[in-house]
Amino acid sequence: MRILGLMSGTSLDGIDLALCDINESGYSVVAAETMPYYEEWRKRLSTLEHASAYEYALANVELGHLYGRTINSFLLKHNLETDAVASHGHTIFHQPHLGLTTQIGDGDAIAAETGLPVVSNFRTLDVALGGQGAPLVPIGDEMLFGQYDACLNLGGIANISYRADGKRVAFDICPCNMALNRLAALLGYPYDKGGVNARGGQVHTCLLHELDALQYYATVGSKSLGKEWFVDQFWPLVKAFIGVVPSLSKVRDALATVSAHIAMQIGRVLEAHGIGTLLVTGGGAWNSYLIEQIGEYRPSTAITVPDELTVNYKEAIIFALLGYLRLTGKVNTLASVTGAKCDSVGGVMSGIVPAG
Questions:
Q1: What separation in angstroms does the CA of 286 have from each of 140, 186, 280, 309?
Q2: Distance between CA atoms of 100 and 115, rounded to whole angstroms?
Q3: Other Cβ atoms within 10 Å of 324 Cβ, number
Q4: pTM of this prediction exceeds 0.70
Q5: 62 or 221, which is more confident?
Q6: 174 φ, ψ to 5°?
């Protein structure tokens, strides 16, 4: 099938669209593009967890219409058509221990704008089944990128998937661009290009030890991170270090320290599971300083940063796969990854779904 995968990550870089000819054995990308969020939407989404129920519900519908119009513009620009849309949406709340995960961007609104079948809300069924609802990408890692021992995504959150005892397992390791981009913004940049500011800072062991001591890192098995954890537990430690009116040197030192923390946490996971070959994707794959640090902490792992299309759009590609699996009635969420009571066929369908 030809499926348009749509992804909006926690780092709020923009809307990733990847139009793919895809099935469970392979894919080809027909066209791909990132549409930056308007500043109004960046601000709105970054604070929506504190909004009223009315504002939240309105944002859900209005974002769905925005996604639909964005899809129409993308298809018109490239003079292409698609069989269906698979939309991850944008995560606002993720607290699986409470049975809660929400990704806004109403699927019915997308279907109304585009006239296309839409699959959305991929995570909610798994959470209802007692799972983490995340990460969902590992089934795509298994089907499309299984030649590597492990796949590491350096997005807003760093997560990894690999095979263990004949099953695909995965979990969120630690914050990544969610933390680095917020620090870079204090220097006036959307992100720390190539890690140049982190490279110019000094690692502070006290902050590093505080970050490493967070309880999440002692938890084993299926686990996932949300913005709430970052805001409540991670960021206050960094904020206390940089101060109320942070100097440029303090911010650079914080970038260096957080980068070291990310690399160390990833390195420990690679060592613990004997990862020999690693595929790295997501925006953080372009952070050469961070990649160097991961290599220093785990020199025996061969790190591969693939072509630009795969680095930038792997998650959108895999959500196209998840949509294909949902539309064909095949498992797209693995209990071995999420900790749910069983595998499931996740995703809510909107619009008219073609037969077969």
A1: 22, 20, 10, 12
A2: 30
A3: 25
A4: yes
A5: 62
A6: -170, 170
